[in-house]
Amino acid sequence: MSEIEVRIADWHRDNAELRRIRETVFIVEQAVPPELEWDAEDEHAIHFLALESGYPVGTARLLLDGHIGRVSVLRDWRGLHVGEALMHAAIAEAERRGLSEQKLTAQVHALPFYERLGFSETSEEFLEAGIPHVDMVRRSR
User: Do residues 11 and 2 lie in contact, with contact meaning Cβ atoms separated by under 8 Å?
Assistant: First the structure.
């Protein structure tokens, strides 16, 4: 595997790749209803694409209030630090924009991943799209 590059994506220009990844991970693999996956926030969010040798393998988005979400990595690239690279890019962009508090809603199975990045739980477990989640926050130093 070559090195993973993460870049800020353009919602309109990169739409097909952003949608392909999120549809594969959330709608196909996790059975999230399409009406829950796509929202009006996408138009104004800062999107990130992770690429291996130019091929898009992961995505995430940052909302203007510091909420990071839609973190998704295609199955064959999981466990190869793609999610970590996406999160580092999103956190760095949030901090660059003066957002010293980053928030996210994490699937419970991914708690250790987000905790390693400095996030702490701020809610009880709840279901979102039929999947157990918790709210988490990270404060920049």
Answer: no
